[in-house]
Every structure is written in structure tokens, then in C-alpha cells.
Amino acid sequence: MSGTPGAAGDLLTGPARSGPDESDWAAAVAAVRRLPADARVLLICHVNPDGDALGSMLGFGLGLRRLGVRHLQATFPGPPEVPEPFRWLPGLDLLVPSTGAYPDPDLVVCFDAASESRLGELVDRLDTAGDALVLDHHASNTRFGRVHLVDPAAAATSVIVDELLTRLDVPLDAEIAQCLYVALTTDTGSFRFEATTPAVHQFAARLLATGIRPGDISRQVFDTRPFGAVRLFGEVLGRARLEPSAAAGHGLVWTYATQDDLARHDQRPYVLEALIDSVRCTAEADVACVLKQVGPAEWAASMRSKGAVDVSAVAVALGGGGHRFAAGFTGAGSAEDVVRSIRAELDGALIAR
User: For the stretch 16-49, what's the b/e string if a residue is b when 16 or more beta carbons lie within 10 angstroms of its beta carbon?
Assistant: First the structure.
């Protein structure tokens, strides 16, 4: 059921792909409507799930539960650990470890994953499932699976989830709204990023109309972290490096965090997800990067752009994916080796233009 990767686009213009058409929506609705009463449905989001991945998956799961789906699981690859900021979300009872997920579900639904590689050890479910539905908003999505609801113009995968639930006649309630609001606010940076449109605010207004409390949600998701994480951030930010001439003069700022750093401050890896926001504010650099060590010579790279550079093209070239303004990949070697590969992609493509 694998798709064929599309063109990655270039560093300045990026990929251009349209969203779902009516036949795509009809196919997705039919995939759910034709499920028998005893169907087993498996929901999967990407490895190291963020707010959009978890919120979209759990919100859709709650919607399926409202439709009467009884045999329903949600999961993600890797250790079955939900990041602390999301451990209050409704629908967490749907979660199972990847080792306990249905081996041959009637339907598998994937959320916020741009490629099969983001499904880790669960990727085989694309072949063993009776049907495979993909909901995503990454422009770099490779169109794996069978039915694709992929809209690069959507501010978050939760926007697509909301549309599908609407077409399935699932009423929006406070529990679903909490999940989708977390997804929406995390991927729009609390409505600060370029993807924030009038339609995004209208969607947020509908979610808030269910009675959810945005102040409480914001404090739990964005404004609460252990003191150890504060100390860790200070140490990692202290080693940040600025390269004004990189990216053909647009500038690059980067730093890295090791597994020893986490252990020394007694912190879990998820706390590093917010670190990129403290790095990307550097005035002298369009591109920001944080490297997070995930193995002896393995790094998860998170990149952000202020607009002059399409970092998704860099990520795709290095085996990852994402959006024009936010993307990532996994690199091997030392931190300097990984940054060298980023620098080469940035400089080579931009100078060539």
C-alpha cells in the first residue's frame, strides 16, 4: 500500500500539492461507514507524538466511539510514554503499546505522519489492514496508504479530522474539542504562525463554544515545565552557535542536547520539544535547528524558518519531511556531522539559485 514520494520542491518555493477532493472525502467516509459491527480499528500517530498527532488521533477516536465503534485502539511507535503536557487529554484510555496493537485491523487510520518511516514498527499494519486511511497536513507527505486526506494548506491535522467528523455526522462535544484544540494550538504556536488564517480562528471559536477553557489548556500545554527542564534549557541554550553566513547569508542558529544532558537534569526527552522556540527567536538567523540525541550516534533534528528558506526541502533531502516553516529528520554521526549536512543542503541549493 506504499505510495510514491513526490517532488520535494526547492528551498524557496517548496512543494505545491492540492488538498483532498470530493472523491477523497467520499472514500474516507465510506471506509468508516462500511465497517461491520465487530470491526477492529487501529489509530496510529507518528513516533514521538506532539500535540497535533495525539490530539488529532484521540479526537478522532472519541468520534468513532460516538459512532458506536467498539473495538478501537490508538497507538504510536516507540516507548508507550505520553508527554506530560498531554497526559490529561480525553481518550487516553484508547491507547495501547505498539506491542499490543491489533496485528490485522479491519481499518488503520494514520495521523500527522508524512511518510511510512514515521510509523516505526507499526508500518506493517499498512499491509495487514483491510483498509488504510491517512490524515495529514505535511506538504512532504508521500501518499502512503490507500485513502489520502492530505491538505498542505491545513494549519494542523486536526482541521482535517474536524472535517471528516463533520461528514460522518459526529457532533462536536467538549471532549473532542479539547483534543482538537490542543492539536490546533500546538501546530499554530498558539495562533502565532503563518498558517493562522481567519478559518483557523473560526475553527477555534467553534471548539471554544463547547465550553472548554483555553487558559487552563494553555497553562498545561505551554506554560508548565519542571525546574530541571528550566536548568536544562539554560545549559543547552548556552552552547548555541550562530552562523550568519550560512544559508547563503540568511543565517543559521543551532544547538544540541545529549542524552547525558537529560540524565544529568533528570528529564524525559519530551521536554526538549519546546526548546526550538527559544532558539528560533534569534534575530540574525532565518533558520534555527535543535539536535536531540536519540542514540549513540543518532540525532533528531528539528528545524524552523522565518520564511526565507523552505526547511521542508532540506529535511526531505536528508530523509525527513515537514512544512516550509517547520521540518525535521534523523541524522547520524556527531552533532557537528549532522549540522554539516544541513549547512551543505542550505548553501548548495540557495547558492545554486
Answer: eeebbeeeebebbeebbeebeeebbbbbbbbbbb
